[in-house]
Amino acid sequence: MKEQELYFKGNQELLNYPKTAFFCSRNTPATVISKSYDWAIDQKNKGNCIISGFHSQIERDVLHFLLKGEQPIIMVLARSMYKRLPDKEFKAGIDKGNLLLVSSFRENVKRASSSTAQKRNVLMIDLADDIMVAYASKGGSISKLLPQMKASHKMLYTLDVEENDNLLHAGFSTV
To answer: Cys staple from 158: which of 11, 40, 140, 172, with CB 3.0 to 4.6 Å?
Structure first.
């Protein structure tokens, strides 16, 4: 990982845990939705540390399931660090020590953009120990990251659904 300045809110010790990066495209087929929820509940029950931007609807839904547990969660922002937390569940997670917010953007980056989201996703790949892509739409921003994910030499996982054949052909294993 190339050296860059990072900003934190929460328990930085969570960075020492084995971390699975979670990605899912915005436009997700119905077959992926319930399997993503099952995967999130399984990760919560196993106590696994998940790192994500939690930006797409499915990613936000996964965060909702994870916040009900006690396992570590790392949220990587595609903007500067929040001055005020947007959700009371975030404060509760930070207070319990099982949530860490990370940003690589200075205070002047107030909103996420496709460019900052791409930089955030690269940071997530760098920080993670393995990578789970629930779904990557063809030609979408996550699909454009597939070569970088493969080059990371990390374990790559996806859901076992027909719509993920492109990921299976790219070397991903099913969970």
So the answer is: 172
Those residues with Cβ within 8 angstroms of residue 131's Cβ, 6 or more apart along the chain or in another chain: 20, 21, 23, 125, 149, 152, 154, 155, 156, 157
Q: Where are the domains of the chain?
A: 7-174
pLDDT tens for each residue of the chain, 175 residues long:
456 799 999 999 999 999 999 999 999 999 999 999 999 999 999 999 999 999 999 999 999 999 999 999 999 999 999 998 888 889 999 999 999 999 999 999 999 999 999 999 999 999 999 999 999 999 999 999 999 999 999 999 999 999 999 999 999 999 9
